[in-house]
């Protein structure tokens, strides 16, 4: 009789035979793809030890989906090397909603290649291969992978900091022990293998037909332009075919809402090649939208007790050494400019100059909180490969604010700012959100990227966490995501189709006041150091416009719409009548245009319907004789014979009331 061991399964102790695997505990549940054993994800083939605490991980959970997607990446790599035997392997991690794998091949993959690879993958999936984990020494791995130069390079990166050396490397060499996963056919023969930490699904059959290859693109090895350019294949994988179908439908809807396409169609903004990547220009209608947002947030800041300031776009380089940005954030800044031997930098942030304004005179505790804000345009040295329309740019205009407070005032100021932020998002129609608390990395090499003492970080983090929890909103941890100078709360908003966007941020900074020697005179006459609270309500006006364009699919609510009313006369005889109506709207502060083109009326109506203008006013003979207009709304509904005074009142009420229609 085999000896028995005791394990804990989902909170209940169970006696099992020695040699029992995690999969033996859940062999009747095909939804379980891996197990969490002692807090770590393990293959279902993992043999249990006495005292192990075991939890099932379902394929529908985030961790289960990540395992499914990484397993699908292995199937892709196997299919590529079967089809293109000369292909050398890079890295293939799971990512949000899918996976990718990098390959060194002679020619870029074509759409036909992807279709062929998808068919090969389906054959591998249907064959029911199993994933078998095998521990190897560094030397053994080098011998087995002698023909894979990129894998050989990864072996030298193994350990906890692998992802710092190469994106996605942790899935292959993130631990101290190297492992290779062999793909076995039904006879137990090894048909393929890959360097990998795992875990993996027990059989390729679990991938079923819930996967699809999406596209291919060029990608530099380890993200550096100095390295060879590889070919990256992106794919997606889901727990079922229905989940895949739903995801593809979401993508199609996202494509219809793409702000880059809508921006061109609606004549809002563009990205001229002559200007450069990541540097948008706003056309008249886009500039109206932007100015409306700026006017709104200006007044909100004034109402909240902020004073408006302006600062230059560049500064002597030494300022950013003082702030700590050059020592800790140099890669994100534009290269230096030389002025007869004096180095200057285009600013990547506004806070150092706000500190100089604070420091320009002596401060008393009676002045605190002291609040500054500006529409400060900053410039970031973003790599061209990550630029994405308005949502990832090199020119960022922030409604950037800084509050200087005593330590005792800090919690109240953060509450004040969080209420400000949430009210702003609601006014812009974003009312589904949660909070994320970004803290420093407590271990490994990343710890050196954060300045300040353990006590300062603990105190600052505790204050932010307390206020965040008081809000009653969901709070998600983001270890390692803090700025180098202090932790932050960010508001993560979900748009109309469920995508999450990081919007506003609130950061607690105990470092810059010390570096700039900021002080105030306390009530007892002593000189004390203030706490600095950074906040950006829009975050980036450019990014916010991009998000809103997609959230509303271009159909902005009346108060934001660049054109709020479009007048369409039934015939030329009614042009002057509609001009008079438009004049009354203009006097009321409404943005109105008239279609006085030579197009026939049916075409004008079709064009008007595509314009996404909130209100279309139509006038014909009956309308003119009655001193009225007919409304046509964006949903296709119509209301006829509305007296002009009532029409103006309805439109003005919708605009001033910020009605979301």
From TrEMBL:
TGS domain: residues covered: 1-58
The enzyme's E.C. designation: 6.1.1.3
Residues involved in Zn(2+) binding: 351, 402, 534
Any Pfam family the entry gives: HGTP_anticodon
Keyword set, alphabetical order: Aminoacyl-tRNA synthetase, ATP-binding, Cytoplasm, Ligase, Metal-binding, Nucleotide-binding, Protein biosynthesis, RNA-binding, tRNA-binding, Zinc
Enzyme class, broadest EC rank: ligase
InterPro entries: aa-tRNA-synt_IIb (IPR002314), aa-tRNA-synth_II (IPR006195), aa-tRNA-synth_II/BPL/LPL (IPR045864), Anticodon-bd (IPR004154), Anticodon-bd_dom_sf (IPR036621), TGS (IPR004095), Thr-tRNA-ligase_IIa (IPR002320), Thr/Ala-tRNA-synth_IIc_edit (IPR018163)
Signal peptide range in chain numbering: none
GO molecular function, one term: ligase activity
Record carries keyword ATP-binding: yes
Reactions catalysed, as given in the entry: tRNA(Thr) + L-threonine + ATP = L-threonyl-tRNA(Thr) + AMP + diphosphate + H(+)
Subcellular location: Cytoplasm
Cofactor, how bound (note): Binds 1 zinc ion per subunit.
Needed cofactors: Zn(2+)
Annotated Aminoacyl-transfer RNA synthetases class-II family profile domain residues: 273-557
Broad class of where this protein is predominantly found: cytoplasm
Listed PANTHER family: THREONINE--TRNA LIGASE, CHLOROPLASTIC_MITOCHONDRIAL 2, THREONINE-TRNA LIGASE
Description of how the protein assembles with itself and partners: Homodimer.
Stored HAMAP family: Thr_tRNA_synth (MF_00184)
Family classification: Belongs to the class-II aminoacyl-tRNA synthetase family.
Full protein name: Threonine--tRNA ligase
Organism: Ornithinimicrobium pekingense
Name of the coding gene: thrS
């Amino acid at each position: 009789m085999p000896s028995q061991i005791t394990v804990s399964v989902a909170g209940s102790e169970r006696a099992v035979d020695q040699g029992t695997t995690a999969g033996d505990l859940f062999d009747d549940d095909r939804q379980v793809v891996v197990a969490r054993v002692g807090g770590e994800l393990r293959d279902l083939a993992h043999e249990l030890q006495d005292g192990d605490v075991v939890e099932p991980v379902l394929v529908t959970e985030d961790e289960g989906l990540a395992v499914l997607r990484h397993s699908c990446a292995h199937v892709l790599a196997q299919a590529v090397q079967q089809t293109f035997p000369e292909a050398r392997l890079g890295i293939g991690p799971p990512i949000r909603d899918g996976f990718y794998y990098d390959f060194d091949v002679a020619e870029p993959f074509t759409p036909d290649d992807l279709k062929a690879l998808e068919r090969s993958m389906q054959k591998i999936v249907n064959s029911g291969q199993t994933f078998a984990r095998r521990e190897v020494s560094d030397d053994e791995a080098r011998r087995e992978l002698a023909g894979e130069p990129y894998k050989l390079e990864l072996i030298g990166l193994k350990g906890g900091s692998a992802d710092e050396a190469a994106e996605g490397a942790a899935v292959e060499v993130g631990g101290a022990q190297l492992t290779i996963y062999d793909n076995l056919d039904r006879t137990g023969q090894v048909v393929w293998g890959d360097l990998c930490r795992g875990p993996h699904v027990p059989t390729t059959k679990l991938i079923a037909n819930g996967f699809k290859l999406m596209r291919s693109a060029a990608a530099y090895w380890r993200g550096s332009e100095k390295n060879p350019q590889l070919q990256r294949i992106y794919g997606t994988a889901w727990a079922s075919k229905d989940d895949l179908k739903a995801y593809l439908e979401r993508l199609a809807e996202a494509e219809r809402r793409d702000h880059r396409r809508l921006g061109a169609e609606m004549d809002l903004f563009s990205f001229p090649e002559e200007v450069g990547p990541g540097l948008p220009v706003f056309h008249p209608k886009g500039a109206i939208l932007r100015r409306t947002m700026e006017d709104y947030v200006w007044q909100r800041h004034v109402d909240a007790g902020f004073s408006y300031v302006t600062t230059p776009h560049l500064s002597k380089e030494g300022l950013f050494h003082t702030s700590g940005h050059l020592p800790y954030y140099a890669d994100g800044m534009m290269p230096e400019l030389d002025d007869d031997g004096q180095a200057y930098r285009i600013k990547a942030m506004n806070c150092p100059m706000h500190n100089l304004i604070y420091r320009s005179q002596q401060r008393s505790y009676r002045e605190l909180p002291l609040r500054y804000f500006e529409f400060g345009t900053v410039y970031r040295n973003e790599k061209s490969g990550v630029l994405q329309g308005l949502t990832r740019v090199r020119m960022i205009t922030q409604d950037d604010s800084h509050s200087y407070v005593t330590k005792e005032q800090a919690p109240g100021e953060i509450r004040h700012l969080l209420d400000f932020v949430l009210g702003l998002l609601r006014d812009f129609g974003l009312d589904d959100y949660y909070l994320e608390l970004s803290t420093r990395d407590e271990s490994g090499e990343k710890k050196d990227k954060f300045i300040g003492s353990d006590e300062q970080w603990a105190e600052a983090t505790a204050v932010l966490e307390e206020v965040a929890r008081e809000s009653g909103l969901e709070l998600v941890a983001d270890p390692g995501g803090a700025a180098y100078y202090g932790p932050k709360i960010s508001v993560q908003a979900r748009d109309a189709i469920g995508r999450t966007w990081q919007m506003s941020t609130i950061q607690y900074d105990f470092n810059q006041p010390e570096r700039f020697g900021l002080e105030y005179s306390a009530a007892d006459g002593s000189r004390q150091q203030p706490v600095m609270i950074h906040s950006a309500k829009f975050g980036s006006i450019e990014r916010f416009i991009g998000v809103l364009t997609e959230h509303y699919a271009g159909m902005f609510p009346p108060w934001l719409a660049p054109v709020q009313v479009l007048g369409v006369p039934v015939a030329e005889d009614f042009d002057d009548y509609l001009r008079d109506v438009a004049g009354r709207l203009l006097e009321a502060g409404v943005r109105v245009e008239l279609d006085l083109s030579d197009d026939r009326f049916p075409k004008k109506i079709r064009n008007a319907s595509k314009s996404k203008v909130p209100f279309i006013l139509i006038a014909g003979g009956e309308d003119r004789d009655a001193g009225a207009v007919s409304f046509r709304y964006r949903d296709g509904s119509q209301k006829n014979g509305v007296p002009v005074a009532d029409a103006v009142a309805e439109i003005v009420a919708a605009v001033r009331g910020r009605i979301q229609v």
